[in-house]
Inverse folding.
């Protein structure tokens, strides 16, 4: 019968401390598959109201890190038979672990609230803050609790670009202007926006010819509104996304009070570049409008909605007492905790009623 | 914003592979790098200092015998004896002193645990005169099972 004498070190190591980190299967795969990539522990900026968030990142994935305390005695023991090839059957405890670090999937985040907004040559500061942060994209990446690849994807989605070593967020109006100009330029070169692919360099050259937008601005637009092709360095237009972008832009400008959906569709169509005939469907814009009156819609600015689920339900029911289920879900989806069904949240804060075949509405309780 | 690199080079080879063969009792309770994890419900009360300059006599000889020096510098105290079950390799017993025993088992962890070795008190400021390269955090081992003792201690009748 094998016996071991179990010891515990009296004073802890002065040079090192030992902590336990839970390793999800995708992280384990990453460790074994990548020869050089290490992990990075990053934190978001802490403020008096927000203590900041710790994350663990690989190059392309982010996990939220949480300390899980427990009251049991957990000891890490060194079996001296193995590495030191002794045969004295001693287990020497060298660390006591009163908690584990838990990792949960996270999308990461970039705080752009203090970045300056760029509108053409005009600089519009965010939230009228005259002390907008002067920071480079590399510094912003370092300060953001997100992995490098996810950062750049999210950065372009937010309309971020770097000019003269400073990070800016392009204003929605300016993004629309540049996008409009680039699509018009492509169509004037007989580009078939439905089927063709185009080299990224060609888009930059067209931009120089037409309006001379800064390269980094064109890069942001290309990254945001195109899909990579199988051919190297070529892209195709993401027509649905472009149509949606123009739709939201028109909604935000024209539908601040009730607007008939027919009238809106006409205005949406006329907002697109000439000869750019992509399919338009109100479904693209779910999550940005409500219909308090049949066939009349009104724009909802998502930035003004509460970030807590219960308050958001209250706000949405103030806008409309009876929501089409499919129109309602996009407004709450991003606030539903992972692993929880959207419907169970609807049943918690409201009611889901069936009216007619395959049609559901959401109403207050 | 502070960020820290976690060096994975030490554990790449074992990240996705279970121990290929379990030949010895050491393989049952320890990782290939020689680490074991033990969990006891409640608190283990151990002495806070070793009896370094205490004169050995008849009354304290047995107590002093519990203390050893590890790597010639660190003091450790013997708090028990771990015994593996011959018939059932998943069962272990931990004898604490001469009066208590704990029945436990070896269980697979739901999620493997990386053992992070974190350097303490790193002063890399140039004005300190010893501008050394900052040492990274390392994951030095991956533990996939632990010995867990969930029950209350049982008395040993002598």
């Amino acid at each position: 019968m094998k016996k071991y004498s179990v010891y515990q070190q009296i004073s802890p190591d002065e040079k090192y401390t030992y902590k336990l980190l839970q390793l999800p299967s995708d992280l384990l795969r990453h460790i074994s598959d990548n020869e050089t990539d290490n992990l990075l522990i990053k934190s978001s900026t802490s403020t008096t109201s927000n203590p900041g968030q710790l994350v663990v990142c690989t190059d392309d994935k982010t996990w939220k890190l949480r300390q899980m305390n427990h009251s049991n005695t957990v000891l890490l023991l060194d079996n001296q038979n193995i590495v030191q090839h002794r045969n004295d059957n001693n287990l020497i405890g060298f660390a006591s672990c009163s908690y584990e670090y838990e990792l949960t999937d996270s999308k990461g985040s970039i705080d752009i609230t203090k970045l300056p907004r760029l509108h053409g040559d005009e600089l519009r500061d965010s939230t009228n803050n005259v002390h907008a942060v002067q920071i480079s994209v590399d510094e912003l990446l370092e300060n953001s609790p997100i992995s490098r690849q996810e950062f750049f994807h999210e950065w372009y989605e937010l309309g971020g670009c770097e000019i003269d070593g400073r990070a800016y967020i392009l204003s929605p109006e300016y993004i629309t202007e540049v996008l409009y100009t680039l699509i018009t330029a492509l169509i004037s070169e007989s580009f078939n926006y439905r089927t063709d692919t185009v080299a990224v360099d060609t888009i930059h050259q067209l931009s120089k010819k037409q309006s001379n937008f800064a390269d980094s601005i064109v890069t942001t637009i290309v990254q945001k509104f195109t899909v990579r092709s199988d051919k190297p360095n070529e892209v195709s237009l993401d027509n649905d996304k472009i149509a949606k972008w123009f739709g939201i832009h028109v909604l935000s400008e024209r539908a601040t009070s009730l607007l008939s959906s027919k009238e809106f569709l006409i205005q949406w169509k006329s907002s697109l570049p000439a000869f750019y005939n992509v399919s338009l469907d109100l479904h693209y814009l779910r999550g940005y409008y409500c219909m308090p009156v049949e066939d009349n819609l009104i724009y909802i600015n998502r930035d003004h909605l509460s970030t807590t689920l219960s308050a958001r339900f209250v706000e949405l029911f103030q806008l409309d007492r009876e929501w089409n289920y499919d129109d309602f879900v996009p407004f709450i989806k991003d606030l539903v905790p992972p692993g929880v069904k959207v419907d169970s949240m609807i049943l918690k804060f409201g009611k889901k009623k069936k009216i007619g075949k395959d049609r559901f509405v959401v109403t207050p309780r | 914003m502070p960020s820290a690199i976690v060096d994975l080079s030490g554990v790449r080879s074992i990240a996705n592979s279970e121990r290929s063969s379990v030949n010895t009792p050491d393989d049952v309770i320890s990782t290939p790098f020689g680490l074991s994890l033990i969990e006891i419900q409640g608190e283990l009360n151990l002495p806070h200092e070793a009896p370094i300059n205490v004169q050995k006599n008849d009354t304290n000889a047995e107590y002093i015998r519990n203390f050893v020096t590890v790597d010639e510098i660190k003091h450790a105290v013997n708090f028990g004896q771990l015994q593996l079950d011959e018939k059932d390799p998943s069962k272990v017993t931990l004898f604490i002193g001469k009066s208590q025993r704990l029945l436990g088992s070896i269980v697979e962890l739901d999620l493997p645990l990386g053992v992070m070795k974190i350097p303490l008190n790193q002063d890399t400021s140039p004005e300190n005169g010893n501008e050394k390269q900052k040492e990274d955090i390392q994951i030095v081992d991956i533990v996939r099972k632990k010995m867990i003792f969930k029950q209350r201690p049982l008395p040993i009748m002598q």
Notes: Residues 25-29 of chain B form the longest helix (5 residues).
